[in-house]
Amino acid sequence: MQIIDPSRSYPHEFVVFRLTGYRPARGDAAAEPVAGHKLCRDLLQLMLDVCDSFELRVEDYDEPVYDSPALASKFRVSTKTIQRWRNRGLVARRLVFGDGKRRVAFLESSVRWFARNREKQVLRSIRFSQMTGAERQDVIRRARRMVRATGCSVNEVAKRLAVRAGRAVETIRYTIRRHDAENPRDAVFPEPAAPLGDQEKLVIYRSFLRGMHVPALAEQYGRTRGSIYRIINEMRAKHLQSRPISYMYNPQFDLPNADEMILSSGGDGQPGRGRGPKTPPPDLPPYLRALYAVPLLSPEEERNLFRRYNYLKHKADKFRREIDLAKITSSKLRNIEKLLLQANGVKNQIVRANLRLVVSIAKKHVGGPQSLFELVSDGNVSLMRAVEKFDFSRGNRFSTYASWAIMRNFARSVPRERYLLDRFSTGHDEILDIAAALRSYDPNELNLTELRESIDVILAQLSPTERRILIDHYGLDETRPARTFQQLGQHLGMSKERVRQIEAKALNKLRKILHPKEADLMC
Hints:
Layout: E1 9-10, H1 12-20, E2 34-35, H2 36-52, E3 65-67, H3 68-75, H4 79-87, E4 93-96, E5 102-107, H5 108-117, H6 119-127, H7 133-150, H8 154-165, H9 169-182, H10 198-209, H11 214-221, H12 225-242, H13 258-264, H14 286-290, H15 299-321, H16 330-353, H17 355-363, H18 372-389, H19 398-423, H20 427-436, H21 448-459, H22 464-473, H23 485-492, H24 496-513
Helix pairs in contact: 3-4, 7-8, 7-9, 8-9, 10-12, 11-12, 12-16, 15-16, 17-18, 17-19, 18-19, 20-21, 22-24, 23-24
């Protein structure tokens, strides 16, 4: 037992010879080599079996012999510690003591050998003492502070505090668990609450996106920081899975060297190597004149950018399909989000290089109900949609495809705006139609006071920004004149198109609220 190295393996012939003095012949050695750690375990059990086969007494040995209580008293440790030493290699026998009873016994030579080879463990056990009340309180205080600061699990907290306190990990873990069992309302690690539902997880995720810190969320929902991070990653993964990622597929995307060929070649695709800036028309406003400072793309730059754009989305979609909600890692989610951000950056490069195309087409439709700025805004939306639908592999120029898409959109939007203008001469009329849905408005007995109160009631269902845009755009505030989208954008610090989108969203919200099947506002 004393010459065995647990990390080595030993031939069968060696084991037989050391135990019996018999050296087996080569032909008898059919057994596999024996691992050292298994051999040590088997030898400890063999000694006990041999002792049980004979009436071996303490007097048969010419050295001191200890039973478990006597050995524990010698080292000032507990009998449980002696049992742990046995599991780690302390040789034990089963001998008959002077009282005639057979008990587990330890020879002095075996104890000295174990103490010499396990010196650090023995010294740590000897120095061990029962924790005082002050020490237990200090452990609980440190554990609570560590959980609030890092969100560690009980095992991680026990490992860190064991190093600081000079105690066994199990001792620290037992101290924390015992405190939590005796003080459930003040537990360091409370009993797990009921699983959170999808709606609660969504609220946590949205709160995190709005800037609420993870420790605050953990305290609010009675969870650890680690569980909050897992919920956030789960919702991020679900959001990516539900997000549509459309792109124009190309067989080049599945080539082994696709990354090197598409992402490394052709530079970063920045516009600037195509045709130089064209002199803008003199009648354009300063904002639109600035668009002509961006150079056009050459055919090669255009192909590289579209191939890069669609390939990045192809990779993101491929990685997204491999998401396993049971094994979510932040690195995989960040990789997908990074690819989508890179694709969006390439799309912005393409759009900026083609904005002057929208201006040139919009100028041809000026004179109708829409201003040049409104036409350009509509054309920009069509341009962005065209980027997503353009197939670069067909060999056509993007300007041809985009021109067709923009003109087709104008063919629909311009007559529609003219029709709406003829039907609704002012913004007040549209709001009156909304108020009529309250079913408290009688066109034969118009009461402006009641109508105003009804409008205020329904507008209260909107957010402050939505209310401000509707009131100012349609002139519902008698103290101020109606404002255009451009004026509202400057006042609110956002683009004109964003103001238009918010207004459309607000009107759709009002229509849903006032739908007779979805709301009953008679009360």
